[in-house]
Each structure stands twice: as structure tokens, then as C-alpha cells.
């Protein structure tokens, strides 16, 4: 199974565990699944023609990721006795929000949560953002015309303020993807595949999303999220904890 081989590769290179996201199409009696796996800030997809089961779709995505990543040489490790000075700041590649998320995953912290601050009239609104990381809040320095830009600025402030990655204690990082956990639980208990319904423009929370998930004919609603993925994760968390507590 390529999922197992991909997990081993991530452990060897000290990356956060793979996170899978599955979509379903087609009729109930003949569903078709496609999967995406996120690793170290990059996404890999299963074949376009899809698969007949969630497990097969995830394995195809894992195969695409493993074949691509295993071809890249692992970074050289220092020789015995060789000292490497820790960096003065967090050096990761990619947009600030993605870099901050990877930082939290590697440090074993909960994913960052963003809170918007508004200024101006509805037709000419400007934004600031506050990001919370491990109980600490970091605010973007100035107002922006797009919420996404304000969140990126807040993430940049957090990255500059948090301790360098090299100085963090080595922790066993666990996946916080409740969508994966809920999906695995549904497969194990032979529940129908979880169905998500996500909407944007939530009242009193402009620029956010709200999601519900239906499992066993029961609908669960999560807190609003600043992205569709986060909103679905919040709904999946409510559903997963419900079934876990009921058992």
C-alpha cells in the first residue's frame, strides 16, 4: 500500500503526517471517488478517472505523492560532532499562512485560527486580522482591502515572533484532520459516506464559511471557518466527537 510507504517517507524526513481529502461523485449505487493528499505544503491528486472506493482513491493519491517525493533526495544531515546554528527566524517556503500552518503541525500545536477586524462602510470595507497560535494572538500591522491579504500579514507577524523551528522540542506530530478521522470511523462502522454542505457569506461573519455534515441521517454543524476546508473540518470535529462519546 502506497499510504503506508508514504507515511514512512514522511517520518523519515520529519514531515507532518499526510492529510487526505476525498470527493465523491455519481449515483449512490455507483459512486466515484477522487482524493487529494497534502504533504509539507504541497498537494498531490489521484488519477482523473477516479476510483470505486475511498481507500483506492487515497492510495492512488499516495502513489502520486510517493513517486514524486521519493525521487527528491533527502536533505543532508550533519556529520557526528558537526554543529549547526539555529536560524534566527522560521525559514519555510510558500505563502505566510501555509508556512504558519506547517510550523504548527511540526510543533504539535493546533492549527492557526484567524479573526477578522473591519473598518469602513460595507461597499468600501477594509480588513485587519488577528491570528491565534497556541493561545498567543498576533495582529496584522495595517488595514488591507482584502481579508486574505490581512490574514497573510497576520501570519507573517506570527512567523517573525514565534521561536525558530530548530529550537522547538521534538514532538510526535499527530494529524488534526477530523475529516479523515470521521471518514475512517464511517468506513469502520459501515456508515454512509459523510456528506458536507458548505455555504459562504455567513451573517455577522463576512468572508467566512459555515458547513454541516450528515452522518447516519444526523446533521452536525460546526463553527464558522475562514475557508471552506476549515469550516468542513469544524463540522467533522463535532460529528466525530459525537460518535466517539456515544461509543
UniProtKB/TrEMBL annotation:
Keyword terms, alphabetized: Repeat, RNA-binding
> Is RNA-binding there in the keyword field?
yes
**Which SMART domains has this protein been placed in?**
DSRM (SM00358)
- InterPro entries the UniProt entry points to: dsRBD_dom (IPR014720)
One Pfam family hit: dsrm
According to the entry, every stretch annotated as the DRBM domain falls at 1-71, 95-164, 177-245
Keyword flag Membrane: no
| Domain of life, source organism | Eukaryota
Q: Name one GO molecular function term.
A: RNA binding
The function of this protein is:
Binds double-stranded RNA.
Give the matching PANTHER family. Answer: DOUBLE-STRANDED RNA-BINDING PROTEIN 1 (PTHR46031:SF36), PTHR46031
Give the protein name, as stated in the record.
DRBM domain-containing protein
Organism, by scientific name, is: Eragrostis curvula
Amino acid at each position: 500500500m502506497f499510504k503506508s510507504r508514504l507515511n514512512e517517507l514522511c517520518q523519515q524526513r520529519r514531515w507532518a503526517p499526510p492529510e487526505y481529502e476525498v470527493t465523491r461523485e455519481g449515483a449512490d449505487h455507483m459512486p466515484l471517488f477522487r482524493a487529494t493528499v497534502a504533504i509539507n505544503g504541497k498537494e498531490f491528486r489521484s488519477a482523473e478517472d477516479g476510483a470505486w472506493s475511498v481507500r483506492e482513491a487515497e492510495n492512488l493519491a499516495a502513489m502520486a505523492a510517493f513517486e514524486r517525493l521519493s525521487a527528491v533526495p533527502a536533505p543532508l544531515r550533519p556529520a557526528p560532532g558537526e554543529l549547526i546554528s539555529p536560524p534566527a527566524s522560521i525559514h519555510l517556503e510558500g505563502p505566510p499562512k501555509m508556512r504558519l500552518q506547517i510550523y504548527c503541525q511540526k510543533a504539535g500545536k493546533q492549527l492557526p485560527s484567524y479573526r477578522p477586524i473591519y473598518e469602513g462602510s460595507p461597499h468600501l470595507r477594509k480588513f485587519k486580522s488577528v491570528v491565534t497560535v497556541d493561545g498567543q494572538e498576533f495582529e496584522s500591522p495595517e488595514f488591507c482591502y482584502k481579508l486574505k491579504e490581512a490574514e497573510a500579514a497576520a501570519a507573517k507577524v506570527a512567523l517573525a515572533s514565534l521561536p525558530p523551528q530548530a529550537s522547538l522540542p521534538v514532538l510526535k506530530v499527530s494529524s488534526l484532520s477530523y475529516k479523515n478521522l470521521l471518514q475512517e470511523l464511517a468506513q469502520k462502522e459501515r456508515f454512509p459516506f459523510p456528506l458536507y454542505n458548505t455555504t459562504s457569506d455567513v451573517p455577522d461573519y463576512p468572508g467566512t464559511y459555515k458547513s454541516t455534515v450528515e452522518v447516519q441521517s444526523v446533521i452536525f454543524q460546526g463553527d464558522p471557518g475562514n475557508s471552506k476546508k476549515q469550516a468542513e473540518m469544524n463540522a467533522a470535529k463535532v460529528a466525530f466527537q459525537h460518535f466517539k462519546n456515544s461509543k
